Amino acid sequence: MSIDLLNRGLKLSHLRFAAVLRQYGGISAAADAIGISQPAASRLASELEQLSGIAMYRRTGRGIELTSAGEKFALRSSRILREIAGAGQEIDELSKGIYGSVSLGSVTGPAIDFAIPALRQIRLSYPTISLRVDVAASDVLIPMVLDGELDFALCRLPHYADHRQFTQLIKMEEQVSFVVRPGHALARNAGVLPIDALLQYDWIMPKPGAILRTTVERKLSHAKIPLPQNVLTTSSYLFTLALVRQSNAIAPIATSVARSFAADEGGTSGLVTLETNLPISVEPYSLICRAGAEFTPAASMVFGEIERSFQQI
Q1: In terms of domains, do 189 and 255 share one?
Q2: Which CATH number does the domain housing residue 226 bear?
Q3: d(CA 58, CA 180)
Q4: Residue 128 lies in a domain
Q5: Which residue numbers delimit the HTH lysR-type domain (predicted)?
Q6: Are 27 and 70 in contact (CB under 8 A)?
Q7: Measured torsion, CA atoms of residues 57, 58, 59, 60, in degrees rounded to the nearest 10
Q8: What is the pLDDT of residue 103?
Q9: pLDDT at residue 267, as a whole number
Q10: d(C-alpha 103, C-alpha 160), whole Å
């Protein structure tokens, strides 16, 4: 039988303290963060251990370190506090109209294809909604969705994630393009290039294990094409685009990004997409939210606008 923490006397003050203790790693700093005295914070820490019947933290030379149980409790405390804050926000939005803040996450390609058009429309139709967009890899975004830090995200569920904790809507494939600078020797070829013609140049790719790199390398291997020998590894799209513009390097990137930075006909700025005999697409991404999540009116508006962006493709 599970421990009934509420009947044992668990209070909101315990949740707040656990959340800030994880964030600041010290009782004194946690006390300052929630505006209570250090003796009061020490009392909350002691009460937490009495309520749970298990050690929630240990003292180290650098302050406080949460135990495994303490870490899990602190994560759930943060999530509960966000839900309570969300309830207050929703009540406020309902009383005033569509106000509030919405947090969206996205990997780079869908951010350009769907998030930007949707957010542009939201800014025109609902200027009182405050928007936050986090662009990162899926393995960064998914924990943020689960913890309630993001309302939803355009990304992929990692293989290790518990799919029962999420709702996935509208899967979409992501195409990959190879890009070079205007004036590159390969850019002068008007026809379809054999993929092995690209191997004589440096390639810029994400770190090993990243879905884009894994997909490209797997596709090359299946086609019995050698992997590129000279690879510069970076996780920065900005650095990738800048280096392509200033060198003879080649980069596989999301086609939506390639389109957004395409060079004008005969221009010297932007990027040129190479047409090759090896089409590549990355594993589909989805519009993902936490299973059972209740959106605020503002979040529902943004979610619906992104769904409409999907349907227009």
Answers
A1: yes
A2: 3.40.190.290
A3: 54
A4: yes
A5: 10-67
A6: no
A7: -120
A8: 92
A9: 54
A10: 24
Total domain count, the chain = 3
Name residues of the chain where pLDDT drops below 50. Answer: 97
Structure confidence at residue 98 (pLDDT): 64
Residue located via tokens 């947090």: 103
Whether the Cβ atoms of residue 230 and residue 278 lie closer than 8 Å to each other: no
Residue at 207 is within a domain: yes
Shortest CA distance to 167 belongs to which of 280, 289, 45?
Answer: 289
Structure tokens belonging to residue 52: 């749970």
Which residues have a Cβ under 8 Å from the Cβ of 75 and sit 6 or more positions away? 22, 147
Among 311, 254, 286, 256, smallest CA distance to 171 is for 286
Give bridge partners of residue 101 from the DSSP assignment. Answer: 130
C-alpha–C-alpha distance, residues 28 and 30, integer Å: 5
Beta strand pairing call for 100-106 and 129-135: parallel
Model pLDDT for residues 271-307, shown as the tens digit of each residue: 999 999 999 999 889 999 999 888 888 888 888 888 8
C-alpha 3 chain-centroid distance:
34
Going by the DSSP 8-state scheme, the letter that residue 151 receives in this structure is S
Q: Does residue 104 share a domain with residue 59?
A: no
Cα–Cα distance measured from residue 305 to residue 13, given in angstroms and rounded to the nearest whole number: 38
Is 248 found in the same domain as 237? yes
| pLDDT for res 263 | 66
Q: Measuring CA to CA, how many Å separate 81 from each of 14, 25, 236, 274?
A: 11, 19, 33, 50
Looking at the domain assignment, is residue 90 inside a domain? Answer: no
Q: Please give the Cα distance from 301 to 298 (Å, whole number).
A: 5
Instruction: Give the range of the structural domain holding residue 182, as residue numbers without chain letter.
Output: 174-281
Note whether 180 and 277 are same-domain residues.
yes
Residues β-bridged to residue 288:
153, 168
* 270 domain residue, yes or no: yes
Q: How far apart are alpha carbons 261 and 295 in whole angstroms?
A: 34
